Amino acid sequence: MSLVIANLVTIGLALSQGWDLEELMFIYWAQSVIIGVFTYARMMSLRKFSTRGMTSGGFPEPETTATKHGTANFFTFHFGFFHLIYFGFLVMRAPKSLLANLPFLILGVVVFAANHGYTFLKHRKRDALGKPGLAGIMIFPYIRIVPMHLTLMVAIAVDSPSPTVLVLFLVLKTCADVVMDWIELATLPESQPA
Predict the structure, then answer these.
(1) What is the pLDDT of residues 92-105, one digit of tens each?
(2) Contact present, 165 and 121 (Cβ < 8 Å)
(3) What DSSP character marks residue 19?
(4) Hey, what's the torsion of the CAs at 78, 81, 87, 90, to 10 degrees?
């Protein structure tokens, strides 16, 4: 519910301030980075975890601290690299009004940071009770890259994105959030006491 509220606050800010796609994308880019930071923190805070489905050189990955650190570091590099590329696209297309709207953009980012911080604490508490899958934790944040990637490609192809593109992005972004929540709920049994 708090995630839906965070999205609604951002949409409200975008509509009331007359933002274009690029300004809205900066908030959602920052949200995705925040998710990446909390995902890294969640992986690093695990005491017990499953490596089911994870292999290296054709052999199952052991459930060790080294595996946890290696997975968290790989995720940080890979997820961070994607976001560095997206940031470059956003900066190249940044509107002149970006600096004038900076306080509202920061407010949108803070709302998402508070939401994902709260979610992180809930996950960490649940994780301590069971044995969550390390691979699953690493995969969830990538769901958000899909709508961002598609929208960026459309925005690049269209010189000045129309309100239709903005609506498309909002729908894709909201769907990604809902899907991620649904997937996390569907995997709850894996986090229950072993």
Answers:
(1) 878 787 888 889 99
(2) no
(3) -
(4) -80
